[in-house]
UniProtKB/TrEMBL annotation:
It is found in: Cell inner membrane; Membrane. It comes from Arcobacter ellisii. Keywords: Cell membrane, Membrane, Protein transport, Transmembrane, Transmembrane helix, Transport. The gene is exbB1. Residues 49-148 form the MotA/TolQ/ExbB proton channel domain. Pfam families: MotA_ExbB (PF01618). This is Biopolymer transporter ExbB. The chain crosses the membrane at residues 12-33, 72-93, 109-129. It comes from the Bacteria.
């Protein structure tokens, strides 16, 4: 079976996961190209802070701006395996429904439901894992930017 066959067999849940994946990776790419410019960001924060009186509140404000979009990535990382689990439950339910209607004489009767269960579980994990890794990476990067900014501004 080719990739489109698996996607079609997974049904609407796999299509939802693909949609979430596109949104998440768009944000990940945006953050990937904007956050690593640590010195530029710190200089920007320094310029903002020198023009204002409250140093800590200005640094926190600038850091919150850097964190924009990360909640979406975290939510996708959290929801994707749950959607995969929902697909698993739906697939197992379809298997039991097929067994109820046709009996246990032919094992291929309920294999379609098991296939749906496995495909949606795999898809959920494929979406969740890179989003969780990206979220952790970006949070770590933002934390280091915040610490460096506080250190340089207080000197």
């Amino acid at each position: 079976m080719d990739l489109m066959g698996y996607i079609d067999k997974g049904g609407v849940i796999v299509y939802i996961l693909i949609f979430l994946n596109v949104i998440g990776f768009t944000i990940i790419l945006w953050k990937f190209f904007t956050l690593p410019r640590k010195n530029t960001i710190i200089n920007h924060i320094k310029n903002k802070v020198t023009n204002n009186s409250s140093i800590n509140s200005q640094i926190e404000y600038e850091v919150k701006k850097l964190e924009s979009g990360l909640t979406i990535i975290k939510n996708i990382a959290t929801v994707a395996p749950l959607l995969g689990l929902l697909g698993t439950v739906i697939g197992v339910y379809k298997s039991f429904e097929a067994i109820t209607q046709n009996g246990l004489g032919d094992p291929t009767i309920f294999s379609n439901g098991i296939g749906i269960a496995l495909i949606t579980t795999i898809a959920g994990l494929i979406v969740a894992i890179p989003h969780q890794i990206a979220y952790n990476h970006f949070i770590s990067l933002i934390d280091s930017i915040e610490l460096k900014a506080k250190k340089e501004i207080s000197e």
